[in-house]
Design goal:
By secondary structure, this protein is α/β, with parallel strands linked by helices. It folds into 2 domains: 6-22 and 103-236, HAD superfamily/HAD-like (Rossmann fold, 3-Layer(aba) Sandwich), CATH 3.40.50.1000; 24-100, DNA polymerase, domain 1, CATH 1.10.150.750. The protein has 10 helices and 6 strands; from the N terminus they run E-H-H-H-H-H-E-H-E-H-H-E-H-E-E-H. It has helices at 24-37, 44-58, 67-81, 88-96, 107-115, 128-138, 148-151, 159-170, 185-194, 228-236, and strands at residues 11-14, 119-124, 144-147, 178-182, 198-202, 223-225. It starts with 10 loop residues before the first strand and ends with a helix. The model has no long low-confidence stretch (mean pLDDT 97).
Length: 237
């Protein structure tokens, strides 16, 4: 197993949703409630993967949509897949759901511990307003923030990484001193590999989003852990 030490890095960048914010159960609960209201018998895994596939396709469209519109379009695709007409109020609720997604229990403490020694950054497939809500939930202020809204693209495209690397360079952090951490093999680990960034995969138990699709099978993290708390303990050991 690869050994990484906190002293090897001056900055750690993070994917946010799935890595620090536990979005998947909230998405599953929303879609299960919607499905039950329409007599659809699909289980949580089926609904989550329907969302994942729609999300990956919609995020490739250019010009890029703001994330609330991505969620609107995902909802429309899921409705069409199951032969249901979209309900405007449900659609609106889904687009606003990022503002209420909870943090993983270890996120705040882990980020605070790391920020005592290194810069921390957020590279997130989200809009600015939604991320601001999540930062309040995390009770953390990142040193560098790169959103899909800012760069006009979604990971696994490279603008997030190129912009984050540039922001950190202006803070005196060279790219070889950056560690990228994410739960998504597709959107985080594979592009980090291609850009020569060292990376950690947080393989959160019982989570599905971001683990399949284009490029996921190619992902080769330098280290795999099951939680941020485990990573922080390993880095600071």
């Amino acid at each position: 197993m690869t050994t990484l030490h906190l002293s090897d890095f001056d900055a750690i960048t993070f994917d946010v949703y799935g890595t620090l914010i536990d979005w998947e159960p909230s998405i599953a609960a929303f879609l299960l409630d919607w499905a039950a209201g329409h007599g659809i018998s699909a289980d949580a895994g089926t609904l989550v993967m329907a969302f994942d596939g729609a999300r990956a396709r919609i995020q490739k469209e250019r010009p890029a949509h703001l994330y609330p519109e991505v969620l609107n379009r995902c909802f429309d695709e899921i409705c069409a897949h199951f032969g249901v007409l979209p309900d405007a109020e449900r659609r609106r609720q889904f687009s606003l759901s990022p503002h209420t997604w909870p943090a993983f229990p270890d996120s705040h403490d882990g980020l605070v511990r790391l920020q005592q020694s290194v810069r921390i950054g957020a590279l997130s497939n989200i809009d600015v307003a939604s991320l601001e809500s999540s930062c309040r939930i995390l009770d953390v202020r990142f040193d560098v923030v790169v959103t899909a809204q800012r760069v006009g693209a979604y990971k696994p495209d490279w603008p997030h990484f190129d912009t984050g690397i540039g922001d950190l360079a202006r803070l005196g952090v060279p790219r070889e001193r950056i560690l990228h951490v994410g739960q998504s093999l597709r959107a985080d680990i594979t592009p980090a590999n291609k850009l020569g960034l060292r990376s950690v995969w947080i393989n959160r138990p019982d989570r599905l989003l971001g683990l399949s699709g284009e490029g996921a099978a190619e992902a080769r993290p330098d280290l795999t852990v099951s939680s941020l708390a485990e990573l922080v303990d390993m880095l600071t050991r």
